[in-house]
Amino acid sequence: MGRLFVITLEGSFYSCKYCKTHLALSKNTVSKTFHCRHGKAYLFDKVVNVTVGEKEERLMITGLHTVVDIFCVGCGSLVGWKYEAAHEESQKYKEGKFILERFKVLGPNGSNYMSSQEAQVGGSDADDA
Q: How far does Cα 25 stand from its chain's mean position?
């Protein structure tokens, strides 16, 4: 096993709910209007301290996307996904961007997100149309 190098962010940031590893700066938030199975999800231009899973095709409310799940390097928890490709022209802006599921991260002020009120029953990983 190699040595684990973790980037420490300064300022207002989101972190892993389980191990508190820094994941993204608030200023890199593109949108807070996305939704996933557990409730809210945020779109980011850049995230750090994650590893990626295998590419897969996922059918979402907004169409077919090629995505990779992203995992916290600190504890291995699934924290969201990265859009590799969007097959609908109107969704191309998502390519190369990251989703962090709000239920799985701590907010900039260390706040936890509770999903019970806003979770979509049987919801699909997709943004709010």
A: 12
The structure tokens listed for 108 are: 């900039």
Quick check: helix, strand or coil at residue 55? strand
Tokens coding 66: 């090629």
At 20, is the secondary structure helix, strand, or coil?
coil
Q: Is 62 helix (H, G, I), strand (E, B) or coil?
A: coil
**pTM of the full structure:** 0.84
In angstroms, rounded to a whole number, what is the distance separating the alpha carbons of residues 12 and 125?
26
Task: Residue 24: name the closest of 7, 4, 39 by CA.
Answer: 7
CA-closest candidate to residue 36, choices 87, 101, 117, 93? 101
Per-residue pLDDT of 13-69, as tens digits, reads: 999 999 999 999 999 999 999 988 878 999 999 999 999 999 999 999 899 999 999
Query: How far is residue 16's CA from residue 84's CA, in Å, rounded to a whole number?
Result: 22
| Phi-psi map region of 28: left, alpha, beta (phi>0 left; psi -120 to 50 alpha) | alpha
